[in-house]
Write a structure and sequence with these properties.
310 residues; alpha/beta; Phosphatidylinositol Transfer Protein Sec14p; 2 domains; globular; disordered C terminus; CRAL-TRIO_dom; CRAL-TRIO_dom_sf
Amino acid sequence: MPSELLKPPSKEILERVRGEFGLNEERVREAVEHLKDWIQLQPHLPKEIIADDGRLERWLIRCKNSTERVKGTLDLHYTLKTKLPDAMTGWDTHADWFKSISSSIFCIPMSQLTPDYDRVILFGLQTSDTTHYNALNAIKLCNMIMEIRISEDYCLSDVYVVDLEKYSLGHVRQVTIPLIRKFEICVLGGYNFRIKAIHILNAPPYADVLISMIKLVFKSKIAERIHVHGSDLTTFLDRVPKESLPKEYGGECGSISDNWDGWAKKLENYHDIFLKREKYRSDESKRHGCSINDSELLGFEGSFRKLELD
């Protein structure tokens, strides 16, 4: 398995990613201090993030150097833990659900950035057997990966690769529009990960319904970044460099099984951090103004709809 799943950013990466948004070390420090002051003034938000400059900087990068967007994203992130606990809490890597889903799927941020400083995220099934597959638990596991990435990753945007080779009708039937909305609001809203492209590989004919639902839920500019490939990966490999792919796709970044073994262990090593962080959530009884209801979240209505997601 790769010795470092998420390598600490080099000086070159720091300068390139920060420079993309007009940032340098001094401006990052000023923005982070401003965000800390703002968090202190929010009675409904937990204060744990104040001690973590690294996570605040990564949210600043994801929000393109807009402190106002970071504020909205942080508010949404902690609100989701209160309002969507089935997806954003219960991240116990010792629990049966985790053992089942981690043996059924893989969600791998590849260790090597692309030449454009993007992170390739590979998602697929380890087996076509649906026995241990649960779509909600798959989203929960993906959110756990995102939590690690907001702590350790440093890149410009994400390139998602979804391999449907082992997907059956039994898997597809579990995916509903409300479930896709949960995934969208958690990843694009609560973590503000920026999607550069989504490549869908080995799509069977019955996957058309699934792809249509994804395009329906995602904003049009994200839907336009979805590229569907058959079993011929020629056009896919023209867009995604082999240096950032596993050997199963002709890449140079190890095997899927070795990469996922490493990530499964990394998730287990985060066990105590996950359980500690899930306690930090919004206290809606202390929020100034009206509390946020569930329909506002899943419908992107109200104040959170104003977040500009990319």
